[in-house]
Amino acid sequence: MSFKPEQLKYSRKNVWAQSSDAMRQEIMNFSEDYKHFLVAGKTERACVREIIKRAAAQGFKFIEQSNGLKPGDKIMMNNRGKALLLAVIGQQGLDNGVSLIGSHTDVPRLDLKPQPLFEEAGMAYFKTHYYGGIKKYQWLARPLALHGVVCLQNGQTIDIAIGDGPGDPVFNITDLLPHLAKDQMVKKLTEAVDGEQLNILIGGIPLKDGEKDNAVKLAILNLLHQNYGITEEDLISAELEAVPAGPAYDVGLDRSMVGAYGQDDRVCVYTSLRAILETTNPFRTAVALFVDKEEIGSTGNTGMNGSFLPDALAEIGSRLHPQFNNLTLRRVLAKSIALSADVTPGLDPNFEGVLEKNNAARIGGGVAISKYTGAKGKYHTNDASAEFVAFVRSLFNRNNIVWQTGELGKVDQGGGGTIAHMIAELGFEVIDCGVALLSMHAPFEIASKADVFEAYRAYKAFFAL
């Protein structure tokens, strides 16, 4: 059998170039809801609440409400309000493993310290400790919002959201004026802003008829107590996060891209959520896993290194099979397949030297699969098998999904990881599969609307197995 040269050569595709007018409109419509999701879930807790709300509206129920399960059932399992699992029971139950898509709900940010409030030079500030991999200078001189929870001594939990509502005030970390920045400007970018300088400006009016010392701090405490019933000691048992204020935006004259905070990795959270909400009666059980703490190593009881996933599958198995045990669980894990749904860097002409062009993902090039991540000699990666790469390629090609390959930078340039290797260590076949971003980990990240839509289509095809 002979082939034409164009049949032998691999060539990249552009989603927009081969989309009909109707498909382009569908992409645009899809992205409107995506932007709403980004604004609704600016913290991992808020993200999980939004997922639960949407899942409940589509008939998903918490597993505690059911003693037994059958094919077609839709269930949820909540892990401390920061991680979540959704599942649609397949025709085979767990006999042939599960089809899992795992993404993470946490995002780089600034966390308030346990004792954050102080006054200096007639102004009140919150001290922070940054979370995840950030460039500290990017967080200066921009409007910030404050989201999270405060747990009172009596057990009551107070939700805080200031800076994104109509008429809300915003917060800020001040920067040094260029006229006086001679010393700052000659420092390395990593040294230009110290971590202890990331203090958030929160007020400047002193309390009347109060102490002269710390009068502004006392005024802020008074406002916090009046509005939320909290005291300074309550801030010790709080999880308050400073995040960029404002909505998600259309980017470009053609509105082809979305610009927003938190697209790593909530772009994959959203697309896998939409995919499983639209999954009915799959052959294999479909599982969407949303975990926390990926940006700091997947630690803790809500991170991928915790026991949430095997425990959840054991709960499902015990409701499907009366004799389900630990050995059965291990067999289920060994038969399971997964997509580690996380983002990859897109080729940026402004910084193209850090990526190797043949293996870099392009914005608008479709969903990106990455055989491996890691650093240097592929440390801390999964490195998907050739067989599973071929399986995913074939699945996407059969469903006319535009896909491309991606890699996390040139060899020895740097690197990073995802939850893929942790899923693989449980026995799964797994590969990274997600959306290419520009300005990853910045307070404002860029994604192509076309790639977001192709990721959704790819995840939906995977769940339909």
Automatic annotation (TrEMBL):
**GO cellular component labels:** cytoplasm
What keyword terms does UniProt attach to this protein?
A: Aminopeptidase, Hydrolase, Metal-binding, Metalloprotease, Protease, Zinc
Q: Which Pfam families match?
A: Peptidase_M18 (PF02127)
Give the top-level enzyme category.
hydrolase
Write out the GO biological process terms.
proteolysis
Cofactor requirements of the protein: Zn(2+)
Look up the EC number in the record and give it: 3.4.11.-
Segments spanning the bilayer are none
Entry GO MF terms: aminopeptidase activity; metallopeptidase activity; zinc ion binding
The family line of this record is:
Belongs to the peptidase M18 family.
| Protein name listed in UniProt | M18 family aminopeptidase
What's the source species for this entry?
A: Desulfotomaculum nigrificans (strain DSM 14880 / VKM B-2319 / CO-1-SRB)
Species classification: Bacteria, Bacillati, Bacillota, Clostridia, Eubacteriales
